Amino acid sequence: MTGIDRPDTPYLGVPSGGAAAPAGTRCRVEVDDSSAVVRLSGVLDPAAADTVRDALLARLCDRPGPIVADVTRLRVDEPPGRSVFAQVRREVADWPAADLLLCDPAVSGAGSADTAFAGVPAWPTLDGALAALAATPLAAVLTVDLPPTVEAARQARELVATGCRNWGMPALTEPAQIAVTEMVNNVVVHARTVMNVRLAPYDNTLQLSVRDHSPRWPTFAGVSPPTRAGGRGLLLIDTMARRWGTSVVPDGKVIWCVLHPDDEARAFG
Known about the structure:
Layout: E1 2-4, E2 19-20, E3 27-31, E4 37-44, H1 46-62, E5 67-76, H2 84-91, E6 100-103, E7 122-123, H3 126-134, E8 142-146, H4 152-166, H5 173-191, E9 195-202, E10 205-212, H6 233-240, E11 243-249, E12 252-259, H7 261-268
Parallel strand pairs: 1-11, 4-5, 5-6, 6-7
Antiparallel strand pairs: 2-3, 3-4, 8-9, 9-10, 10-12, 11-12
């Protein structure tokens, strides 16, 4: 079981439903609130890479499910800019119900890996990419917005119990409730912002995330001595989860974890 801490990197917020293009860049990002499509146009150079990454991560925070980046009108000015899409896809790989697809007319076929943006499945038409997105079931996603109050952890545990019951994952109910309690309490005590709790099944694992609006970075100092009171939140998550980590996103962060029933059978069996 591994905890992943990434360096704190500054991000620029990208408003949903609008466009972002910081001064001096030639790349335009358009986010459509009514669909899962993010349209990119202009020139993608290293200066614009952070803007593109922010826009995609912000959209993935805002709505459950995969999104489609339409790069039909985008030109890559320098090779390093091509990696931003694969970086985003790797970042959200363990988020609940999150993925990134591309609409790229230059690809050779549906779902092709033969693209200038390696590491991201691409379709030559937007209709094809949206059809692939529609084939991904979203009914198995549960999400709730919570205030930073003492009641938040109880509501998050109830959401987890509902999900584990609906998805036939009884062995994960207790460990997932422990993990989500620590994730939510971290927001209540430290971030003190509204939060979004999200969970979804993936294969035979359960993915959990809590998104807040604070740049404060959680720390994991290893095993806490038995005489120490408190300070065990991330330790408990590390104990329960197969993988966990923190993603910096515009206006805050996402703490996520992945639980596997085999791990719980060994721990509690």
